[in-house]
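look at this one:
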Amino acid sequence: MSTVVGGRKTRREPSKAPYYVVLVLLALFAIGPFVVLAFNSLKTNAEIGRNPLGPPLSPVFENFQAAWSQGGFATTMVNSAILTAGTVTGVCVIAGMAAYAMARLDLPGTDAVLLYLFVASALPFQLFLVPLFFLWSGLNLTNTLFGLIIIYWAIFSPFATLLLRSYLVALPRGFEDAARVDGATELQILLRVILPLSWPGFLTIALVSGLGAWNEYFFALTFIQDDSLKPVTTSFDAFQSNFSRDWGLTSAAGIIIILPVVALFLALQRRFISGLTSGGLKG
């Protein structure tokens, strides 16, 4: 739509109201389940049955203390932190070296490796549960955090490699060529040139793999039987009886599990965004 101002025709910008409406609806869709979870964490089972979606009429803050104690979070939180840190470290090393080799070294067979990684990322890893369990039993890796970390490396490294490779392909080669002229080795180029330029990509795969390791339940339940080694996701089993579940404590446990992840993401979000617009790619 246009109007005439001073003899010149000017174009009126369309209203942005529909965009804000869509954004508000998407925000409500994303935040709504978390709000309901927070409401239910402050209710008794009887009140959840009567009022499953509304705010609590008589908040029961003792649910958090009971959930922490009954779920053994003092132990499972530490175990999950170890699993997450080990997974993130291993995935960043494996994916970083593999992505650099495929994006920069022009090795033969790169296309075949990429196809293999695509297939590996698409296949459900539960297909390999039985042979993997027998293999891990023979290697004495069951019921150990390190054995579970190795499984997480295999689960998250293919997708992390593909994601990081796509980031490295977009980097200019001028910095590497200058480093090679100065006599730098490929490992030195990776650590001193590529890593500072691509750390937002590494941060992305660290967040994705870390969140996956923190939330993983199936392999943790299968390969860890010792209560002192179980991760945080298995704490939900403590609120289940033979014929019922305490949904108030379960909701409180969900809040306890979510809060560290949300806090970590909010702490790293600004650095992640600033890293995308800084460094050698600027200008």
In short: The longest strand covers residues 2-5. The chain has two domains: 15-60, 73-281.
